[in-house]
Design goal:
179 residues, 2 helices, globular
Amino acid sequence: MSKESFHASGTTTAFPGATQETWWDPQHGLHMRVTGTVSGDVYCKDGTSYTSAPLFAAALRQRGQSVTVPNRLADTYVTSTTTSGCDMYYRIPEVVRAAPGRDRLVDGRRASAFETPAGSTQDVYFLEDGQLRLILVESTRSGRTSTTSYDSFGKPSSFEMPVAGRTMSVEQFRAAIGG
């Protein structure tokens, strides 16, 4: 999927009650918008993720850390580098196994199901038959469920990564919030 642009939308297990919309374009990178009681944006290009400070803080709060984002940082992005690349946001893990008993129609298209091993995290990936492209993911994480649909394959997206003056490392962010 990393070679073809697409759009995805649905709910998210990361933040209860929130939705997310994602655009991927091989030339521009990834843009994800989370909307709900927690809102913010994530961008990723060339293995660097840019997470809006309010969204980054919300993720830290879910892990039990007390974090408040000062107004002066509200439009700042926290950067992190990943060795797994930007496709980590939509990649199908290698541990999936075919689940033919879950094959079904998705928006009128035959789809083959692949699932992760059972546990507290469970994902079912539906790939369009004959295209081998992801069209639906159903996820469960710690009792939360989400559904994400994929579409607009091959249609380019245009967006800009956050500018350098609006970014800071995790360490700089922690220093700026006093923690």
